[in-house]
Amino acid sequence: MTKIFENITILELSDSAGEYTGKLFAGMGAHVIKVEPPKGSKSRKVGPFYQNIPNLNSSLKFFQNNINKDSITLDITKQTGFDIFLQLLQSIDIVIEDGQKIGQENLPISFKDIQNINKSTILLSLSPLGKTLESENFSTNDFINLAYGGPLWSCGYDDHTIPPMKPYQDASYHISGHYAFMGAMLALMERTKTNTGQHIDLSIHEACHNTTEAAMPAYYYNNRKVGRLTGRHAAPAKTIPVVFKTKDEKWCFIRIPANTNTWNKLIEWLKENEMEKDLGEPEYQELSFRQENAQHITDILEEFCGNNNANYLFHKAQEIDMVWAPVIAPYESLTNEHLEERKYFTKIYHPELNETIQYPGRPYLFSKTPFEITTPAPSLGKDNSRIYGNLLGLTKENLTLLKQAHVV
Fold this sequence. Notes:
Blueprint: E1 9-13, H1 16-27, E2 31-36, H2 60-65, E3 70-73, H3 79-89, E4 94-98, H4 111-117, E5 122-127, H5 142-149, H6 151-154, H7 171-194, E6 199-203, H8 204-209, H9 215-222, E7 227-229, E8 232-235, E9 243-245, E10 251-253, H10 260-272, H11 287-292, H12 294-306, H13 310-319, E11 325-327, H14 337-341, E12 346-350, E13 355-359, H15 384-392, H16 396-404
């Protein structure tokens, strides 16, 4: 089956910010070569670790973000290492790099210099505010990215004496990684016409800012700030709750149908449970009337949730075209029927551990260009001999000398 990026070769010189972009390319067939310092990328030192034993080849976070990739070691701060890097560029389609400070690029080379070596190479830079912004150096991390970009303001509870809730680990790098992936695909499309690469200068801050939904237009166009709302979209004004406790002590997310046909299916369901009350009255056939009486409808549906189990509510609502869903704990996703049906979780054998580990799998299902997981994250420098031998013709003896000089 076709792998859409099977003819694309990528050098990835990045840690947290760029690894997810490389993963998305690798899953679609690109040959992603992770270039690491001889002592390993910083992301290898971030836990949790396999069997709680920290070392450069046991980070579970590194495992997750670096499937399907090769690993080579190279110190590009040394002249010999830099010269080798320049040789590698001659056959590279995309270079991914990130940095934690504005103006402090991971690459000791400009995009113009890269184009002089290979004009078709695309440089993809991810940084806090963008490489081209004139500003002071700005140190950052995932927490700061989310706060500074805006998502953190919108995540939390109705009770604003409770601090905002930070989304899942590295959310800002997943957000920016997706934008970087899209930008690089556009550059590849343009390259088919011009045979020339581009520099994609991505601001993590701007990527996060663009995912704040209504918060951004509400402020820019109406000078209104949104407020955090439990289990629902942040909004300038308080909205009606949509998550309610169920009979089995779980929680269920509900929506009042806007479509009248679906509304009528809901009423029939409520009648079966002797819970329709006045909702079957003719005036409720009008959407405007339902909107005006949304609180009353919600009160009845809250009681309905309290009388039934979460999974029953979920499956019955799906049958009648309603978007209701149980709120599940992270561990419950491991046995979730929907994820099992889509074969989301993937088991990968790690030869260096002699163990099979279950991974979160494909982010999407495409029929003609599938995302595939074929190999585990590489151990540090695992592919030195093959990559340097195939691309540059270096021998085992050459690599031994480079290792003694701490270049690889």
